[in-house]
Specification:
459 residues; alpha+beta; BirA Bifunctional Protein, domain 2; Rossmann fold; eight-stranded mixed beta sheet; five-stranded mixed beta sheet; 19 helices; RNA-binding; aa-tRNA-synth_II; protein biosynthesis; ATP binding
RNA sequence: GUGGUUGUAGCUCAGCUGGUUAGAGCGCUGGAUUGUGGUUCCAGAGGUCGCCGGUUCGAACCCGGUCUUCCACCCCA
């Protein structure tokens, strides 16, 4: 007997019902991307390794799926490297390509390669899978979809405001009420690191700070000490641990804390402008919240940082994130192009919506009407009827064999078909077809040539 | 990458301190019902107990390895 097939850890098959729900989310996101003036692009599933490596930090490099070279790749490795058993040295010799890790870096690469064809500011969206060699958990997969929208070539803070509105628009449309859009600014984090004299440890400082709400003040301090941040520096950062209140109150305290840091004050100014503009315009269902402990590990962010938390009570990591990166294209040789963008985590949004039961019932219906098969002669007539129903825009199908009524009805029931058409000997003689509405059990008769009337009746 | 956890029928799960032919519910197939589904009744099919190895007279059960699931780290959508 053949062995049981399986799929790799952290990957999934999607059933028709699941695909319908995923498409619903994608369509909604796509609709708003386009309403906001973004244009779609697509990039390859895999890139040259040097395009990706080193862009996401050491941790990121570890999580990038590397693709083995083709051919007899091992014989081309020199003996010293081969026998060193050092993965870091050996990897670049046997792997030149890697699966994309996110959509932002490939986009930066795209912008640089196509800079002469692009009209700036360039607003693009991209909905494609990405891969991470992570250990799977709930809401964490090795293959998952990101839905990104970015703008490059525009420095205005209005872009940040627009992205907050975009998040709000999408989540409102999906019926996902009560999301929290957390915002912070990398410059504030830099300013704090500068003020407390830990500028060189910025990343360690922010990564630790990011965990404040999760592990508490004590543990955060512990981790900072471990990373080599001095006791006195942590003491200086103390006000951060208890900062609270409205955005403007928090900003006021930050102004006091960061008075001596030019970059820190710049960050406060930016945040102030973004938040006050959003407050001025108003949001539909989301909530914008200043969170000075929000860090995000990606080290290419330079200005605003976003992260979206699911509604309260749902156990899920962030369902979206993004920020401004002033020099991402610089790595690929194009200077002075600022970008800002956000990402929607499709797979996590799906899980949250499933948990909150937010998918519309209509997604379950994959067929509007099933025509039962009574035999050769009747079947032929039914096929003509089905054709005219399809022409009228209905999703219609004919049961392929003249199986027993019970079986055909059972099939219709299972598929969740709302209407079943009976076209048997009697109907054929009368030049009519009978429609049974499955939910009510009621019958209605139509003339054979009036499929369009029926279509109109049920729409 | 570190630590833990899980795996028995299509699905959800029982299975005693190791002891003959591994069970239930749901689902599936057929029938009661040759033009009416969702209810009911009857019958039936379906399992290398994740995989490999070890201990034992004997392993679903104990041990080791491996894969998978979920969880906590790390990190992140």
């Amino acid at each position: 007997m053949a062995q049981k097939p399986s799929i790799p850890k952290g990957t999934r098959d999607f059933s028709p019902a699941e695909v319908a729900k995923r498409n619903y989310i994608i369509q909604t996101i796509k609709k708003h991307f386009e309403i906001y003036g973004f244009q779609p692009i697509e990039t390859p599933s895999f890139e040259n390794s040097e395009t990706l490596m080193g862009k996401y930090g050491d941790e990121g490099d570890r999580l990038i799926f590397k693709i083995l070279n083709s051919g007899d790749f091992i014989s081309k490795v020199d003996d010293v490297t081969y026998s060193s058993k050092n993965s870091a040295l050996l990897t670049p010799k046997i792997s030149e390509k890697a699966l994309r890790y996110d959509l932002t870096v490939p986009f930066a690469r795209y912008v640089v390669m196509h800079q002469n064809e692009i009209d700036f500011p360039f607003k693009r969206y991209q909905i494609q899978p990405v891969w991470r060699a992570d250990r799977p958990q709930k809401g964490r997969f090795r293959e998952f979809y990101q839905c990104d929208a970015d703008v490059v070539g525009a420095n205005s803070l209005l872009q940040e405001v627009e992205f907050v509105q975009l998040y709000d628009a999408v989540f409102t449309d999906l019926g996902l009420k009560g999301t929290t859009i957390k915002i912070n600014n990398r410059k504030i984090l830099s300013g704090i690191a500068e003020v407390i004299g830990a500028k060189h440890l910025l990343v360690d400082f922010t990564v630790a700070l990011d965990k404040l709400d999760k592990i508490g003040e004590g543990k955060v301090k512990e981790e900072m000490l471990e990373k080599g941040i001095s006791e006195s520096a942590i003491e200086k950062a103390r006000p951060l641990f208890s900062i609270a209140g409205t955005a403007s109150e928090q900003l006021e305290r930050l102004r006091g804390l960061l008075a001596d840091s030019e970059i820190g004050m710049a960050g406060v100014g930016e945040l102030d402008e973004i938040i006050s503009t959003v407050e001025n315009i108003g949001l539909q269902s989301a909530q914008l919240q200043l969170d000075v402990t929000l860090a995000r590990g990606l080290n290419y962010y330079t200005g605003a940082i976003f992260e979206v938390a699911a509604p309260e009570g749902v156990q899920m990591g962030s369902i979206g994130g993004g920020g401004r990166y002033d020099d991402l294209t610089g790595i690929f040789g194009l200077k002075d192009v600022s970008g800002v963008g956000i990402s929607f985590g499709l797979d996590r949004i799906y899980l949250v919506m499933e948990e909150l039961n937010l998918f519309p019932d209509s997604l379950d219906t994959s067929l509007d009407v099933l025509c039962l098969n009574f035999g050769e002669k009747e079947g032929l007539e039914a096929l003509k009827l089905v054709a005219s129903m399809r022409k009228a825009g209905l999703r219609a199908d004919l049961y392929p064999t003249a199986a027993k009524m019970q079986k055909q009805f059972k099939y219709a029931d299972k598929r969740g078909v709302p209407y079943v058409v009976l076209l048997g000997e009697e109907e054929l003689k009368a030049g009519a077809f009978v429609v049974k509405e499955m939910k009510s059990g009621q019958h209605k008769t139509y003339a054979l040539d009036t499929a369009a009337v029926f279509a109109k009746d049920i729409s």
